[in-house]
Amino acid sequence: MLTAEAAFVAFITERRGTYPSQPSCFRPELIPRSLFLPSVPGNPEKEAAVSHATVCPPDNFSPESVNDTAKETCLNWFFKIASIRELIPRFYVEAAILKCNKFLSKTGISECLPRLTSMIRGIGDPLVAVYARAYLCRVGMEVAPQLKESLNKNFFDFLLTFKQIHGDTVQNQLVVQCVEIPLYLTLYSPAIDWILQCIAYHAPEVLLTEMMERCRKLGNNALLLNSVMSAFRAEFIAARSMDFIGMIKECDESGFPKHLLFRSLGLNLALADPPENDRLQILNEAWKVITKLKNPQDYINCAEVWVEYTCRHFTNREINTVLADVIKHMTPDRAFEDAYPQVNNLFCQICKNLMCIFLDEEKFLPFLDMFQKESVRVEVCKCIMESFIKHQQESTKDPVILNALLHICKTMHDSVNALTLEDEKRMLAALINGFIKMVSFGRDFEQQLSFYVEARSMFCNLEPVLVQLIHSVNQLAMETRKVMKGNHSRKTAAFVRACVAFCFITIPSLSSIFTRLNLYLHSGQVALANQCLSQADAFFKAAVSLVPEVPKMISVDGKMRPSDAFLLEFLCNFFSTLLVVPDHPEQGVLFLVRGLLNVIQDYTWEDNSDDKVRIYTNVLHLLSAMTQEAYIYHVDKVDSNDTLYGGDSKFLTEINKLCETVIAQILDHLKTLGKEEVCSYSRLCSDYNTLLRCMLKLPT
Predict the structure, then answer these.
(1) Three-state secondary structure of 652-700
(2) What are the angstrom distances between the C-alpha of 497 and each of 452, 478, 481, 504, 665?
(3) CA nearest neighbour of 699 among 662, 661, 646
(4) Where in the cell is it found (predicted)?
(5) What's residue 56's pLDDT?
(6) At what angle do helices 108-119 and 126-143 cross, to 10 degrees?
């Protein structure tokens, strides 16, 4: 009887520390498969072919469909089980094959469950007995979940023998085995929890109330009370929170620690709300017990549960009180180092339920300083910033908030090193950019620029943050222009030049060449709009000088792509801007256009590429527009070349010379096209004919 021996070994109690893991080793799989699957009549030919194999019956079979041989085999196994002398193996083996009663009669299971429940009364050890009841409840829920009466009977039988736990026999055994009573009681929890969960499943509230009243009548009922709060619905517990607190107060501290009971109560209150009038009293009663805990691990295990309840129902004052108490308990002897997961979870609960930016700096930063381990500290900082970006609806300029969040963003930034993944960098940069966008000092533009300058010095290793700062400063310059309606005073003109200078010295620090090109162009346009002509020329010159450095291939979304299309797009935008850029009095006529044409001429283009000709075509568009008496668009308060030159013949002559040079370059390219490139030739010729008609209208 190998199965019986296995069941007996699994439930011996000479070493109580092996509970509850040791009983879990016993499974129905230890029972021979042939016992579970007796033959069921079917196709005679198939039945003969598989006479020595196991046939699985259908799920909806009835005892009438089972042949006599199968029934006899099943009864034979039950008789063999009945012959086992030891009670524990006999009980577990029969419970394991309880489902096989379906082969014998429709009422077999409902008749066996009460008998097996009564058998457990013969087990003298209360620990062994409670796990036997838990196993029977598990099997009962699996094979006959509708039979609730056996579940209730198991629990009530356990209540009758509950006093046994504190009897002399058990206490003497614990002394011999050197097991403390609090540890011993925790061994009961998994079994009692399972029994109560089975009972509470879809149970009416009347039954739950009855269970609670029966537990109340028992002395030293902390163990039962904890299991009740773990198994019953959170709404049921929350509605009777004060009743449970009263029962917790009456419990004996020496048996089952009260802080575990308050933790179980807090877990329920995190899922369901208690009556509004009782909320503050509940928190006070719970925290009186929690704050007296000397063991930091016990303290933080309770505090992390109750902080969510505090965040949901109370104000920042109560949250600050909780944080101050956590700091008081976890800072001595650096106890927080052994509780990083709990402290982290506590802080994340605050961030999730409350806008943590309103926390008093006196409590907020000291709490953050407890996270000394860099990886944990960075995760907490990310949690804070995600909460800030999610909850903050309006921009802020509060110095306490800004200093705290700058410190947090600096912590995230400083965690970046050569081994940091690109995805992590993008995530950190996105969080910092979200913070930067939410900072606004209103009309105090100088303070806003000072903030951007400080942010640039703090976050210099994250390029997306620098790009965001450049865009923000350009936007600040345009807001200044909007306030002044384009008519800058001496003070605002100096401020705008400071914004332009910020961008000019920041752009070269970026590594992406197309990012630099586009920012030079964008910043030059902003400078031009604010009448900073010399600064705009500097931006455009920098862009022109950067074009030769454009590589042939660039990385786009992790893949290498030719850069010609990106360069063509940039140059087209650049040409559109150059139309309204006035010539520098000391640089000559169209000095920027000439410089750009020289760069395009010297740039090494891909073989058989038409991009160079397309660029020249766009240059002709630009030159054609420059010959007009009045340009099609202007920048307010800025005189373009149509106003400066007024249609002067020398100016037009210079444009004609440039047109001749560009057209010659286009014709040279067309001559080099072979017969295999007919489509390209036709398309370029069409563009050229269109331009030629424009050129014929140019003044001579």
Answers:
(1) HHHHHHHHHHHHHHHHHHHHHCCHHHHHHHHHHHHHHHHHHHHHHCCCC
(2) 15, 12, 12, 10, 40
(3) 646
(4) Endosome
(5) 58
(6) 170
Helix or strand (DSSP H, E) at 556 = strand 553-556
pTM, two decimal places: 0.72
Mean pLDDT over each residue of the chain, to the nearest integer: 83
Question: 434-484, pLDDT tens digit by residue?
Answer: 999 999 999 999 999 999 999 999 999 999 999 999 999 999 999 999 999
Residue 332, H or E segment: none
342 membership: H or E segment, kind and range: helix 340-353
Which tokens in the block code for residue 432?
A: 């910092």
Give ∠ CA 614-620-624 in degrees, rounded to 5.
Answer: 150
Relative orientation angle of helices 316-330 and 296-313, to the nearest 10 degrees: 170
Residue whose token pair is 């013949």: 649
Residue 251's SS3 state is coil
Q: Positive or negative CA dihedral for 228, 231, 236, 241?
A: positive
Question: What whole-number distance in Å separates Cα of residue 480 and Cα of residue 475?
Answer: 9
Q: How far apart are CA 148 and CA 166, in angstroms?
A: 29
Q: For residues 39 and 51, give the distance between their C-alpha atoms in angstroms, rounded to a whole number.
A: 9
Cα 686 from Cα 614, distance rounded (Å): 12
CA distances to 29, 113, 298, 431 from 99, in Å: 13, 11, 44, 57
- Which helix (H) or strand (E) covers residue 369, if one does? none
pLDDT of residue 2: 46
* Terminal-residue alpha carbon distance, the chain: 115
Q: Which residues pair with 609 in a beta bridge?
A: none
- Phi/psi of residue 495, nearest 5 degrees: -65, -45
- In this structure, the dihedral spanned by the alpha carbons of residues 100, 104, 110 and 116, taken in order and rounded to 10 degrees, is -60
Helices and strands: H and E segment counts in the chain:
35, 2
DSSP 8-state assignment for residue 103: G
Structure tokens at 424: 């992590």
Distance between CA 379 and CA 415 in Å, rounded? 11
Query: For residue 322, what are its two tokens?
Result: 């909780």
d(CA 154, CA 139): 13
Residue from 572, 565, 655 nearest 609 by CA: 565
pLDDT at 601: 85
| Dist. CA 154–CA 358, nearest whole Å | 52
SS3 letters for 177-197? HCCCHHHHHHCCHHHHHHHHH
Note the pLDDT tens digit of each residue in 598-654: 988 888 777 666 778 888 888 888 988 888 888 999 999 888 888 888 778 888 888
Q: Is the pLDDT of residue 32 over 50?
A: no
Question: Residue for token digits 């007995």?
Answer: 129
| CB 506, CB 543: distance < 8 Å | no
Angle (CA) 77-78-84 rounded to 5° is 95
- The amino acid that residue 607 corresponds to is D
Those residues with Cβ within 8 angstroms of residue 601's Cβ, 6 or more apart along the chain or in another chain: 665
Look at residues 547, 578, 585 and name the one whose alpha carbon lies nearest to residue 655: 578
> Which phi-psi region, left, alpha or beta, contains residue 178 (left: φ > 0; alpha: ψ -120 to 50)?
left
> Residue range 343-367: average pLDDT?
70
